[in-house]
Amino acid sequence: MKKKVLFVASMFLATAMIAQDGLTSKKGEAYLPEAGDWALGFDGTPFLNYAGNMFNGTTGNSVNATWVGNQPAMTVYGKMFKDETTAYRAKIRIGFGSTTDKNFFDTSAVNPATVVELGDERKTSNFNITLGGGIEKRRGNTRIQGFYGGELLISFGSSSVEHTFGSTFSDDFTATWTDDFDAGTTTSSNGPRTTKVSNGSTMQIGLRGFAGVEWFIAPKVSVAAEYGWGLAMTSTGDGTVTTEEWGLATPTATDNSLITKETTQGGTSSFGIDTDNNGGVISIFFHF
Fold it and tell me: Which of helix, strand or coil describes residue 236?
């Protein structure tokens, strides 16, 4: 009888020790990812900043952790776990953006015959796509896990700036137009003025190794810190700048006309091998 009691007691003790090993919650939920799990991650810096501001009542807290180098900004990343120690990583960003700035001014002082407000516009457009994939290995038997691996990243991007002017050139009067949209200043002249800037398309290829630590703060919820090292190759194609002005198109012309010119800006290329996120990357992952 005593042997049976001791056996049952030892079973309860073993069960309690397993339940208290830190890898399962009180409800029996596993903290760590399992084979077949998926994970979705994003930059945890805004949440850490908010927590710091909330605890000390300020708005100036910040965490020096952001995507730099081979880690393009605003990239969504995820994982698929082959097993408990191996995960496939993927990253993607598809971004389009457009910003329009307007500047209104009175031309009555320049052209007394017509009192109007002419509006100039500057439209900035950009496009970016980032794709990446890699493999991650994990180590550790507690809720604090170490990980390492490698991945390949490819990015494409382009941008352009277009200017639209309300005042046209003429022999009757000198046009007034915005020469600095940021400052809102104008000038009166017959040009030249820039109407469009098309920056060359940029392609970046990055091959990197990484290592980090991940802490599972709740079942299937983790905070990770990561550092990386690798190489990056960047190439930017030639761009163009389009301008317009009022004057004689050729030395033999007798009448002024609108002259449009397009010049080419040389592209660039670069290559480097270095650590790619000296500030560190703080991310939050949800596993399901």
Answer: strand
The C-alpha atoms of residue 96 and residue 107 are separated, in whole angstroms, by: 35
Same domain, 218 and 177: yes
State the DSSP code for 214.
Answer: E
Same domain as 41, residue 25: no
Sign of the torsion formed by the C-alpha atoms of 161, 162, 168 and 170: positive
Q: What is the pLDDT of residues 37-74, one digit of tens each?
A: 999 988 755 454 444 444 444 444 443 333 333 445 56
Rounded-to-10 torsion of CA 170, 175, 178, 180 = 100
- The rounded distance, in Å, linking the Cα atoms of 76 and 283 is 11
101 and 172 housed in the same domain: yes
**What pLDDT is attached to residue 84?**
92
Range of the domain at 14: 1-30
User: How many Å apart are CA 288 and CA 286, to the nearest integer?
Assistant: 7
Tokens 């496009």, residue located: 127
